[in-house]
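Researcher: Good morning. I'm working through a list of sequences from a screen, and I'd like to move beyond sequence-only analysis. For each chain I'm collecting a predicted structure so we can compare shapes side by side. This is the next one on the list. No need for commentary yet; just the structure.
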Amino acid sequence: MDPSQFLENAKDPHVVLGLILLLAWCAGILVHHIGRTVLMRLTAQMATLSHTLKFIDRSAAYAIPLLLVQIVLRAAPEDLRGVPALQHVSAVLFILSVTWLLINAARGVGSAIELQHPIDVADNLAARTIRTQSRVLLRTAMVVIAVVGLAAVLMSFPSVRTVGASLLASAGVIGLAIGMAAKPVLGNLIAGIQIALTQPIRIDDVLIVEGEWGRVEEITGSYVVLRIWDRRRLIVPLQWFIEHPFQNWTRNSADIIGSVFWWVDYGLPLEPVRAEIRRLCEEVPQWWDGELAILQVVDSSDRSMQLRALVTARNSGDAWDLRCHVRAGVIEFIQRECPQYLPRLRADLESTQGEAQLA
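Model: Good morning. Structure tokens for this chain:
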């Protein structure tokens, strides 16, 4: 029998409708429980799908019963008191639950990608690239899903649809006004997509921004969180990275050349210092990568000469520690072995014969 005819022939159609809705809700819970069990077993060997199912499980527990409730209410006669209101409330709740489910699905895919591409390894360039692309694109997708879901909820109200239709006549002016007001938001959204595709920065990249050294800790849909070396956080809008130059120390690889400078006297022998630099680097293999450790004379003045040591490390953090170690070690070496060659100011004092007689 057709549900609408059944409700019309019932003595109390409201009670019958309530019972059918309750049965529909219970059937939805049963379908969700059985479907979850079956899908988890089928996707046990598929890491991404299995992980995503765990994220959407809670939202699906509401979306499936609401879908069945919506089907029942659509089949009910609209002249029955309270049915149109229930249909509208059910439709709004169903749209919100589907929006929630899709956002959780995007979060689940992103989490699965991050688990499959860890960055706490020595060579993490490919993992950081994939993480950055997935994080920015999926967060952009979540924003779009949320906006579309909210728009669908608003359009379910007849008054909103009427206002929307009346505004079409002045859509050009209103679109321009909205565009100007939303320029920062849209600019960051477009910049996020551009960053995800072109990869000027990635998660865990080492950057110099506004004179600050730090690592990219997080990339959201509107800004980048830079973790400064002293544990401060620098928040930079995404659009800033498109419009301004900045330094990326890990663009293609994390290894880097560090430099150390000293001013010393011209009489300092260079070979012992060169050997000491090599020894200091070999002393800390956890920082030095074994590639380069050389000494150069890079500048001179009328009083002293400037030495520069070039040393290599696997990443910028190790390079900083290695530079400090070499700088302190060479200063101690000069103080211990030949302190007379530390830079000093010399003065040649001559006295005249008259001054000598007066003395």
